[in-house]
Amino acid sequence: MTLTQILFVHTKEHRAVGHFNISNLEMLRAILEAAKEMGSLVMIGTSEGEAEYLGRKQIVALIEAYCEDWGVEAILNADHHKSVEAAKAAIDAGYQSIHIDLSKLPFEENIAGTHAVVEYAHAKDIHISVEGELGVLATDSSKVYEGEIVVRPEDLTGPEQAAEFVERTGVNRFAPAVGNFHGMATHTKKQLDFDRIEATRKILPEEVAIVLHGGSGTSDDQLQEAIKRGVANIHISTELRVAYSSALRKFLADNPEETTPYKMFPSVIHAVRTVVLERVQLFTDTN
Ligand SMILES: [Zn+2]
């Protein structure tokens, strides 16, 4: 099945595919170990920064090799690629999924650039899934925010504009601003706008999946309700980074003599894998 078909089935069955970001081999192993254990397909994301650190061609080849060797299914996504050129570079390197994020640009420029990426991707391979984004998320970075995060109603995505954006760009997936924001906030509880999610789901063509960014730090109840209302794909990054860095700090504090890199990482991989397992479980639990 193509990603479009997979997400369509998830939408119908009120389940979601987890999207997890990586910036190194250990994070990739943790996610793929969880995917193998659950027998679930996962999406692996690399932002522009993560992709440049890892190498686009290199990460495509690495994931392909793991999937073949371990019998797991993982789809690599170019997450938040913020220019047409960067998106094209990912397509040329063999990414099966692209998120072109021109949400900071005016509406017409966002449509023109996103449409250009859809055309380029689908000319190369009609099965490449392209995601577009419309609306303003209050934060960009996958990190822990200390202060309060203010989500302004005027920044949220209007369902009618979403429908126009999707029709004119031809995207396969759509990322709205529905109360979500990137990262985790110590002083703000994430509150999703479920009616807006439902209205967006109703107005979009049914084969276009709704993607929720900034899943980290959102309560289980909120995420499950979002899935019920039509979200089929949820992004988790900060929770993995927090698990990774906490476990590594603890290991190094407990084992100051250790100098062998691969001996430092089993507990780190375990910590990240645990987060992925819990999230995949939550996203695929159909009740
Ligand atoms: Zn995101």
From TrEMBL:
GO MF term list: aldehyde-lyase activity; zinc ion binding
Any one of the GO BP annotations: carbohydrate metabolic process
InterPro entries noted in UniProt: Aldolase_TIM, Class_II_FBP_aldolase, FBA_II
Residues that bind Zn(2+) 1: 80, 182, 213
Pfam family, one: F_bP_aldolase
CDD domains, per database record: TBP_aldolase_IIB
Cofactors: Zn(2+)
Active site residues per record: 79
Protein name per UniProt: Tagatose-bisphosphate aldolase
Cell inner membrane in keyword set: no
